[in-house]
Amino acid sequence: MEPALAKMGLARTARLALAINQKDGFDCMSCAWPDPGHRNVLEFCENGMKATTWEATPITVPRSFWAEHPISSLADKGEYWLGQQGRLTEPVHKPAGADHYEPISWNDAFRLIAERLNALDSPGRAAFYTSGRTSNEAAFLYQLFVRAFGTNNLPDCSNMCHESTGTALTATIGIGKSTVAYDDFAKADLVIVMGQNPGTNHPRMLTALEETKRNGGRVVAVNVLPEAGLIRYKNPQKVRGILGKGTEIADRFLQIRAGGDMALLQAVSRRVLAAEDAAPGTVLDHDFLAEHTVGLDALRSHLAGLDEGAVLAATGLASHEIDDLAGEYLAADRVIITWAMGLTQQKKAVATIREIVNLLLLRGNIGKPGAGASPIRGHSNVQGDRTMGIWERMPERFLSALEQEFRFPVPRRHGADALQTVHGLRDGEIDVFIAMGGNFVGAISDTAVAEAAMRGAKLTVQVSTKLNRSHVVTGEEALILPTLGRTEIDLQEGHPQFVSVEDSVCAVHASHGALPPVAPGLLSEIAIVCRLASATLGDRHEIPWGEFEADYDLIRDRISRVVPGFESFNADVRRKDGFVLPNGPRDERRFDTPAGKAIITVNELEHLERPPGRLILQTLRSHDQFNTTIYSLNDRYRGIKKGRDVVFVNPDDLAELGLHDGQRVDVVSEWPGQPDRVLPDQRIVAYPTARGCAAAYYPEANVLVPLESAAEESNTPVSKAVIVRLEVGHVRSPRS
Ligand SMILES: Nc1nc2c(c(=O)[nH]1)N[C@H]1C(S)=C(S)[C@@H](COP(=O)(O)OP(=O)(O)OC[C@H]3O[C@@H](n4cnc5c(=O)[nH]c(N)nc54)[C@H](O)[C@@H]3O)O[C@H]1N2
Ligand SMILES: Nc1nc2c(c(=O)[nH]1)N[C@H]1C(S)=C(S)[C@@H](COP(=O)(O)OP(=O)(O)OC[C@H]3O[C@@H](n4cnc5c(=O)[nH]c(N)nc54)[C@H](O)[C@@H]3O)O[C@H]1N2
Ligand SMILES: [Mo]
């Protein structure tokens, strides 16, 4: 609470703290971890408090700021400084050729954007980005506007995040979402946490894992790093937790080599099949497999030929460690596997997640209590935004329902995803870039390429709460539209409105702002979309934008007629606990695939070879950041203070490379046929990461991730496996 008290004072802090994640309060925007039915008075974590404080700060960017700071000088500032300037309070405009933003009225801003959009040769020359904080209601209207304008160019942060998950799960089990409910964690015999750092990124998940353990279940962590929290955890919400020694959350830790998870999963499945062969009829869930799956025989013959040598090389694990994990899996009747960015941001991410499904299916671990596949989502409403239609490839079912409800021809041609948007901007195919939140150039790979592409746009528009890199790397003409945050009371025509969000386990609930808006005249995201849409579309469509802005219930009425599971949205969302969306695999072992069954897949094993003298670098989050937002320069759990310019390397690799802890080096990434990319002047930190694997912080290390390096099938940047070499510094680049 320290930063909150310092920045907001006691009264504001107390008001905020008592409303976070409460049933009549607002949903914490730090992650998409669900709220338990049995909530504590203070149901939030340290990082949730940081995120809400960051938004609820009473500090605002003064009008004089824009005249004082040319955009070119702001482009020399880092994300940390930009975020510190406070909340944005009035719309500003950078005319073509100017180096300053200037205040502009809301009406002029909307008129200007509408004119530019309507002047385009085709609607496909504009792209409309969404970050994952946007509410269901705002997201639904935003995609409605974009599709009514005439394009499916709806890239989102999910393209860089759990896209690989959605791709793998939809094809194999018929839904791109988690198949577990909150209470399943308490019922599981085994939870395998893969490629995820919950201690920092989903801290309240540790409470659920603690329940797993209290009920006799076990937890296994599979990670390149020994992440704090999984290894030793104190529950700050319990006196016992604060005073005690802390629980050892992970019973077993497999320190895997980057990108080795597909090999590990195949090797475990192979052992499960071998156990069945040794004691036929006793290991696999034969009834389940026969009734609900296809593809077992193909998997069986494929894994029979699995090359154990390749598995050991890919994983860096010893054979007995894999045997032990298989033993844990076989001993458990109910198994949950969770995962996050360590798996999704890999070249073979989609195939790896399909292997998770394979392993779970073998023993019927989908669609029964205490078991399932559980991707842990990032942004607090990134999953809901997808449900509401924020996707460049929404299925026909959704598009035709939208068409029927709003009676305009909804475009069917797939739009551009995040990486394709950068390509489109770079190649002159996209002229206008509009962002509903987020920090696109800060978050996407290959910073230098992405920034050059963005500077080539004719118009860029950011709807935001605070300044970031995307406001200072602009198109020829640019606008910033400030918006209300989720902590703030949203009054429309004198009536307080609420919005809704969907968490990682498909529960939807209301979020009510608790604090008065930081400045008068701020518009909600919904109001911004409605006014932009009516300015742009005029009377080309009969969509009642004005009525939607005045009463959010009317938006929910429309959603209830378009999106399955929301049939009585306005009533359900007013229930204290909200409601849980239907989920075929979880509820009734119904798998909505072309085969009508869950699909067991065969995936060719492939892993990243590390060239001699090189390391495989992952880009990850510190304890004191939210994505591109930097709260402080510390990373407490990893022992880093006052500096993010570090590269973590295994001491044995350092010895081999002739380098040492504390030395300053340039991190240089290599991609065939392209010039080197350089992150200059980083301090080496000797750290117990897996052999051959290094780590550096995102977003700074995004300069190293080649635009071309994308996961197969999902097109997600491969942010967790960049081939780099370390050079004793001589290259110096100006990027701050
Ligand atoms: N406080 C805070 N909370 C957040 C966020 C934040 O920035 N700050 N971001 C939010 C968002 S959008 C997201 S998507 C989530 C992200 O949550 P995480 O996915 O936990 O975030 P990362 O820091 O990217 O951590 C990736 C983890 O995967 C491990 N890893 C890397 N490569 C591999 C591999 O090849 N195999 C295995 N098994 N492990 C590997 C890393 O060591 C690390 O522990 O958190 C959300 N919550
Ligand atoms: N190298 C590397 N790159 C990555 C990742 C990685 O692990 N490594 N992770 C990827 C992942 S998982 C993700 S999700 C993306 C994140 O990409 P984004 O979602 O685009 O980035 P954020 O940093 O979360 O966006 C922060 C900005 O959102 C705005 N904002 C905050 N709250 C609100 C609000 O309520 N409304 C509006 N309109 N604006 C708001 C603020 O201006 C703030 O500066 O980055 C991806 N990029
Ligand atoms: Mo994310």
Automatic annotation (TrEMBL):
InterPro entries documented for this protein: Asp_de-COase-like_dom_sf, MopB_CT_YdeP, MoPterin_dinucl-bd_dom, Mopterin_OxRdtase, Mopterin_OxRdtse_a_bac, Prok_molybdopt-oxidoreductase, YdeP_MopB
Keyword Cytoplasm carried by entry: no
Cofactor(s) recorded in Swiss-Prot or TrEMBL: [4Fe-4S] cluster; Mo-bis(molybdopterin guanine dinucleotide)
Domain Molybdopterin dinucleotide-binding: 615-678
Keywords (A to Z) from UniProt: 4Fe-4S, Iron, Iron-sulfur, Metal-binding, Molybdenum, Oxidoreductase
A single Gene Ontology CC term: membrane
Any one Gene Ontology molecular-function term assigned to this protein's record: molybdopterin cofactor binding
Pfam families recorded: Molybdopterin, Molydop_binding
Protein name: FdhF/YdeP family oxidoreductase
